[in-house]
């Protein structure tokens, strides 16, 4: 997607990419909660909404909770096939 793919295969279906995709090269592919929280604290403004879409469900929910409680971010660990309207 970073290279400009217009569709990706997900759960056996091709899905159109309709997002701005950015590569955060300063993060490890295996950043832990503390590293992600340190990075998030460094942002100058908080995002409208944050989606946690990687990792084990329990760990993803811990990160979601940390973002909400410590930084006041609106965060979500979406369910499989959950649709979200972005505005």
Relevant terms:
4 strands; two-stranded antiparallel sheet; 2 helices; 87 residues; alpha+beta
Characterise the protein shown here:
This protein is of the alpha+beta class. The protein has a domain at 27-76. The chain contains 2 helices and 4 strands. It has helices at residues 33-41, 57-71, and strands spanning 7-10, 13-16, 50-51, 75-76. A two-stranded antiparallel ribbon has the order 1-2. Strands 3-4 form a two-stranded parallel ribbon. Strand 3 (50-51), helix 2 (57-71) and strand 4 form a beta-alpha-beta unit. The longest helix is centred in the last third of the chain and has 15 residues, at 57-71. It is globular.
Write the layout of secondary structure elements.
Blueprint: E1 7-10, E2 13-16, H1 33-41, E3 50-51, H2 57-71, E4 75-76
Parallel strand pairs: 3-4
Antiparallel strand pairs: 1-2
